Amino acid sequence: MNLYEYLSQGVKHFTLIDPDKSVDYLRIARYALEAGTDGILVGGSLGITASQMEKVVKDIKSVANVPVVLFPGSLSQLTDAADGVLFLSVLNSLDPYFIIGAQVHGAVLIAKHYPRLEVISTAYVIVGDGGAAGFVSMSKPIPYTRPDIATAYALAAGYIGFKALYLEAGSGASQPVPPDMVRAVRKAFPRVLIVGGGIRSSEVARSIAREGPNVIVTGTLAEESPEKLGEIVRAIKQR
Fold first, then answer.
1. For 206-215, what is each residue's pLDDT tens digit?
2. Centroid of chain to Cα 80
3. What value, to the nearest 5°, has the Cα angle with vertex 227 and ends 68 and 164?
């Protein structure tokens, strides 16, 4: 089974580890694995070098029995030590660089130097606060109250041919992507749907899981209170 097939089946929990913020990333990874996480995303918006990324991925792979997937915030965050990469295009960025510019450079790098990576084209749609990702990518986040606009982006992503869509409220967001927005996007986008940002409780995780995304991501919670990951994973599985 390849990575995309794995992501497509059921509702899964992934733990996001940002090497720039997570000094003890192996501790977080071990907590996540014990909690039953289905995969680990590695990446961030700021301050990660190529050598740092490779070391972190290799270290996590040494203890992980689940896929380790790149979630790159820049061209430096690539390594073929991972199982795959979310090849992100920030659809609601105001800067073409984050929609197609970085992707042109990244495509050449992957083809020449990391051909073993499984590449999953991913429409990245930023919602609400947007966090660091929204700020760095110069995005115009979709208001929490406008699922219709999120749906329009989801339809566009589907027609363009993206394999996945990531609804992102941003690291440390004041609130997550609302369930009604997830529901609307799920109806419009039949492929892999990923939702992350602002998910800090089992109740919120369960309410989002009931709308049928393929992957629910927690990052800030994993950094600040990794012992709570078990509650989140159970809520997703028992929705």
1. 999 999 999 9
2. 18
3. 35
Nearest to 158 by CA among 127, 187, 180, 190: 190
Q: Cα–Cα distance between 16 and 69 in angstroms, integer? A: 9
Quote the longest CA-to-CA distance of the chain: 44
Residue with tokens 């109806």: 187
Beta-carbon contacts of residue 137 (< 8 Å; ≥ 6 apart): 45, 90, 93, 95, 98, 124, 126
Residue 218: φ, ψ to 5° = -125, 135
For residue 122, give the H/E element and its range. strand 118-126
Q: What is the pLDDT of residues 106-141, one digit of tens each?
A: 999 999 999 999 999 999 999 998 788 888 889 999
- 8 Å CB contact between 61 and 51: no
pTM, to two decimals: 0.96
Could you tell me if 157 and 120 are in contact, meaning their C-beta atoms sit under 8 angstroms apart? no
